[in-house]
Amino acid sequence: MAARPATIAATRPRRRDARRETTRADATRRRDDAPRPRCPCCGLENAKTRHLSLCAPDALRGDAFAARERDILRASVVRRHGERSRAHEIMAWRFGWARGARGATTRASEVARRVGRVDAESVARTIRREVEATPMGLACETEDVEALEILHEDEEMTCVNKRAGTASTPESRVADSSAASLVVARWRRRLVDAHDGALASNVVLGASLVPYVAHRLDLETSGALVVCKNAKAAARAQGAFERREVEKTYLALCRCDEFDVSGGGASSGTIDLALAKRDDGARFFVETSSADGKPASTEWTIVARNRRHALVRCRPKTGRTHQIRVHLAAIGLPIVGDAAYGCLDADVVDRHALHAWTLRFPAKDFAGVPRIVAPVPDDFRRACERVGVDFDFDAVGGGE
């Protein structure tokens, strides 16, 4: 069998189902016909997620907005203003902890009527201010914070080994389950320790502690995640990622039924396939598209294999959404456990087997930052063992 070319051309024909043949015009028409989201609090049309996360965080999650998160808001307002303040009265009616309230009062105009001597605009402004001032990470469990695996930390950034299933950033301003919230909770607890706990009883420490995530990992992807401590540091780190100066290495466990790795097929190469985001109304996905896609490039190398599975090391040169997952599926190496683009092997692993293994920042601008290696998690190692792919993750020093 002839060897596959090392570089996959962007014009390579691909079989797509009818759903993925949606044109840009069709997608635009559906978006225009769809009802515009309206903020239930202030009534703003076409409200963005950022606005809703401050003005109506419970609207983003609906019934999932837990009582614990309401308590977080209440504790923050009480500590900032006291229980007799106007801010506390507004927040109490808005989120349903006021005496006699039968639940949350959604609209700002209704809150203004109940409070009296205040207009709806002032109510909405107060709610946004108080939600934004509520420190992130207050409800993080102590064991989760202590279990954070710190890969590197200095005055500007903290790099952690994100667990699979943990979001990089919070769903809303009050949610506390993300990796960023865990990191800022750790910063706050260290600040309390520095003051011997003296400020913990009367001050909500860290209202100004905002995590700046320099890049993102998919929900099911594990590995190295950089969280910066201030806007200036974030601008430097994000700029390095955008200029493609940060060398990133990923590990992916793939199926290779449609890719011949034993009969002369290429074991390394570069995938140059433009990627385009799609939303057909039922799901979000990314597909290869030379017509309206953005350029994307991924270097790949098979480092271990057997007849049905291969462990692939990837170095993305661009940072597109779902890039590695879509690129590997396009050349016949779908990632194990990836229900969207690969193969759902629930008996092997319960998430897509992709791990952000290493990060190397440019030495000229980040002289104090060493090469960062995120140890491969146990579920990824077990998945490799189950399919018979043998690789010593610890002996190779993170891909070098």
Structure description:
This protein has 400 residues and is of the alpha+beta class. It contains twelve helices and 13 strands. A hairpin with a 4-residue loop joins strand 8 and strand 9. Helix 2 (49-55) crosses helix 7, helix 5 (86-95) packs across helix 7 and helix 6 (108-115) packs across helix 7 (120-133).
- Distance between the first and last residues' Cα: 31 Å
CATH topology of the largest domain: Pseudouridine synthase
The run of helices and strands is EHHHHHHHHEEHEEHEEEEEEHEEH
Helix content: 25-40%
**Major sheet summary line:** 11 strands, mixed
Number of strands: 13
Kindly provide the radius of gyration, computed on alpha-carbon positions and rounded to a whole number of angstroms: 24 Å
Shape category: elongated
Class of secondary structure makeup: alpha+beta
- What is the helix tally? 12
- CATH architecture tag of the largest domain: 2-Layer Sandwich
Average pLDDT taken over every residue: 83
What share of residues are in beta strands?
Answer: 15-25%
CATH-level-4 superfamily name of the largest domain: Pseudouridine synthase
Low-confidence stretches: 5-32, 199-207
Number of domains: 3
